[in-house]
Amino acid sequence: MQLLEQLAAALREGEDERTAELTRAAVAAGIAPRDILDSGLVAGMNVVGSQFRDGDIFLPEVLLAARAMYAGLAILKPLLVKDNIPSLGRVVIGTVQGDLHDIGKNLVGIMLRGAGFDVIDLGNDVAPERFVDTALKENCGAIGLSALLTTTMPGMKRVVELLQQRNARQQVKVVIGGAPVTPEYCREIGADGYAFDAAAAVDKVRELLSK
Fold first, then answer.
1. Strands (DSSP E) along 137-211, which ranges?
2. Which end of the chain has the least Cβ crowding within 10 Å, N or C?
3. Is this model's pTM higher than 0.85 or not?
4. Per-residue pLDDT reduced to its tens digit, 5-15
5. What sign for the dihedral angle of Cα 85, 88, 90, 92?
6. What is the distance in angstroms between the CA of the first residue and the CA of the last residue of the chain?
7. Phi (first) and psi of residue 15, to 5 degrees
8. pLDDT in tens, 98-137
9. Which residues contact 85 (CB under 8 A, 6 or more apart)?
10. 84: phi then psi, degrees, rounded to nearest 5
11. What domains can you pick out in the chain, each with its CATH number?
12. Are 93 and 122 in contact (CB under 8 A)?
């Protein structure tokens, strides 16, 4: 498995061309696409997530690793689809209505994709109805909501209420995060999980969708 270890290392270093080259080499060596994904790309991105959470690396390094991950995924995706290999789940994410901040939300999307989830990113200033409509239409197991302004946080509560109104509260989990968001607010509105950063968001989504 030395090839996959090299692949994971190239991704951690943010070497996109090397990552693509090693992904092709792994495919040519007959390694199963799912093993390349799990033991190469995802393994590398998991380390990046842990290092970012611990403060050992910073946003620029994460973005370089993400670029490398996408280079590898571009080669693997057709093979994964051909083999009908399922993802870990589908997640819709976005910044709530009235809020235009998206750096944290973008990072969550990168980390979720790196962990093996399908991600639908609705962007920023997203209405509660659009979150719920998309989650139900696309068969998503979770909605990730981000807010950086206290004035926009009620949009998170509205998403939970809409899911309840549509009898979809059990099938779609809600994870919230952002600078002003707290675990107490998560409990207050009845959301399923709170995440203080991107790495924690991935852990929480993984935990909720594995139940």
1. 142-146, 173-177, 193-195
2. C
3. no
4. 999 999 999 99
5. negative
6. 31
7. -90, 90
8. 999 888 898 899 888 888 899 999 999 999 999 999 999 9
9. 33, 34, 37
10. 55, 45
11. 2-82 (1.10.1240.10), 90-209 (3.40.50.280)
12. yes
